[in-house]
Structure formats: structure tokens, C-alpha cells
Amino acid sequence: MVHELPWAALAAAFYAANLLIGSLSLRGRRVPRVWHGRVFICAVLATALAAALSFPEHPWRGSALALALVPLALLPWFGRPVRRDPRLHIGLSVSAAPFYAVALALMVGA
Fold first, then answer.
1. Which whole-number Å values give the CA distances from 78 to 9, 61, 64, 83, 92, in the listed order?
2. pLDDT by position in tens, the chain (length 110)
């Protein structure tokens, strides 16, 4: 049952939601910062699960998702302080997007 869910798509959806919440909070919207942190954790966990479940049937998809975890893992340490200078945080966040795009393309093409 766990293998039947589209984990790569779910991970990409969490990632996109996290980008949206982060963008809204930087633009001064009243989005609680705790939502950004919780959706980030969901994105990381869903990505790790999707990567692990992709092996051995879909090793390229699993590799793309595993590579997407690298910038996400660096965010808590190198993406601060966000309010003073958000460029590094944004750059690290967006650098995971190509890996999610590859994983989704491989999922659709499979």
C-alpha cells in the first residue's frame, strides 16, 4: 500500500507549498512562521520517503529526490538570518527545484 502512493508528487507538492508559504511570509503577509517550519519538515520527510521507496525499481528518480535533500538539509544552518538578508535562504530553497522537476518527469514518463 505504501508503494502505491505517488510519493514523488506528494513530496513536490509539499515543497511547492513550502515555497509559497515562505514567499508570502517574506512579502509581509500574515502567515505564521510556524506553518513554514512544519510544512518544511513535511517536505523533507516526504522527499526522504519518496527517495527511499523509489529504489530499486526507479533508481534515477530516487537519486534525483536524494539530491533534492541536500539543499534542504543545508537550509537550517546556512539560510539564516532570513529577515536581514534572505538571498541565501531563497537561493538554497530554489536550488532543490530542478531535482523535483526531474523526479516528476521521471514519474510521469514511467
1. 27, 26, 22, 13, 8
2. 566 689 999 999 999 999 999 888 887 777 888 898 899 999 999 999 999 999 999 999 999 999 999 999 998 888 777 777 888 888 999 999 999 999 999 988 76
Q: What's this model's pTM, rounded to 2 decimal places?
A: 0.91
Give CA–CA dist 45/52, Å, rounded.
11
Element (H, E) at 89: helix 87-94
Domain definitions of the chain by residue range: 2-109
- Burial-class residue 13 by CB neighbours within 10 Å (0-12, 13-18, 19+): middle
